[in-house]
Design goal:
The chain is mainly beta. The protein contains 2 helices and 14 strands; from the N terminus they run βββββββαβββββββα. It is globular, with a radius of gyration of 20 Å.
């Protein structure tokens, strides 16, 4: 019965669902959501919804956030609402943030949804629910050209058997190289390592964001991006993003398994992201930079 964290291909745009220390931009309030339909045309396939909102207080050097995750797989549905806090330390050309999130994790098994072809006395047709406190921790650093971090999710289940908690402790580590110096393109290359119990997965990502010169002090305007991700679990993902306006972005991801027998049903994901400039913002270099992420 052990379960994995939600699998979202667009996590490269927003890492906060597995690292509460991740702060996108300190001059904005962020609203973010992504929904995923996995294994299209497979009955009972995972359906995931992730909603996040966060803001930054310059005087407190702190970010505050709230999130809600719904993950439904067959007869099982998990609900995971969380509150998050991150503290940021600026050291010259580098910023380091430390974060923690806390909330509850609820999983419901609705046995009444079973429709067996034959009677099976081992099946339970009852509705069972488990509610537990939940917490994540992490840190992240950012420089002009690098973003790196590490985190641990569901830390209250570290010493619990998976079958009793119904979700496992996960460990993440990642490093992203970003080059935003070009006049017409920004490009990114990322590497992520995820470990759960005796299972480990590596993920490699590369993306290019195309820009249009504006002739203004805050630089070129980002227009759209395209990216590609490969996981050692033999999955490949196409990522597409479009800046509808200066503060509104949409994204799409398509996952395809490369394993024989599992490559007939792809997965689709849609992302929406909106940011609101903060009137209290005081970071002058940030104001003179139109890019979505620093």
């Amino acid at each position: 019965f052990a379960q994995a964290d939600i699998s979202m291909a667009t996590h490269w745009y927003n890492r906060a669902n597995y690292n509460p220390a991740s702060i996108s931009r300190i001059n904005y309030m962020y609203l973010f959501t992504n929904v995923r339909q996995q294994w299209v045309n497979v009955t009972g396939a995972p359906q995931v919804m992730n909603i996040q909102a966060s803001t930054y207080n310059e005087n407190m050097k702190s970010a505050f956030g709230i999130s809600f995750v719904s993950d439904q797989i067959g007869i099982s549905q998990a609900i995971n609402p969380m509150l998050s806090y991150a503290y940021r330390v600026d050291e010259g050309n580098m910023a380091v943030s430390f974060g923690i999130s806390a909330g509850i994790f609820s999983r419901t098994y609705n046995g009444s949804l079973f429709d067996p072809l034959e009677d099976d006395p081992a099946l339970s047709f009852e509705i069972n629910e488990l509610i537990k406190p939940d917490a994540n921790i992490g840190f992240e650093f950012q420089t002009r050209h690098f973003i790196g971090g590490a985190s641990s999710t569901h830390i209250l289940s570290i010493n619990n058997a998976d079958s009793s908690y119904l979700n496992s402790n996960h460990r993440y580590a990642y490093l992203i190289y970003k080059n935003t110096d070009g006049e017409l393109i920004n490009w990114y290359a990322g590497l992520q390592y995820v470990n759960r119990s005796n299972l480990s997965v590596m993920e490699f990502n590369g993306s290019v964001r195309f820009k249009h010169p504006s002739g203004l002090k805050n630089g070129a305007k980002e227009l759209f991006d395209i990216g590609l991700t490969y996981r050692t679990s033999k999955q490949i993902t196409l990522l597409l993003g479009w800046n509808i306006s200066e503060n509104f972005r949409i994204g799409y991801a398509y996952d395809q398994s490369l394993i024989t027998g599992f490559n007939q049903n792809g997965s689709h994901e849609i992302m929406l992201e909106y940011r609101i400039p903060l009137k209290s913002a005081t970071c002058i270099p940030c104001m003179n930079d139109n890019s979505w992420y620093r």
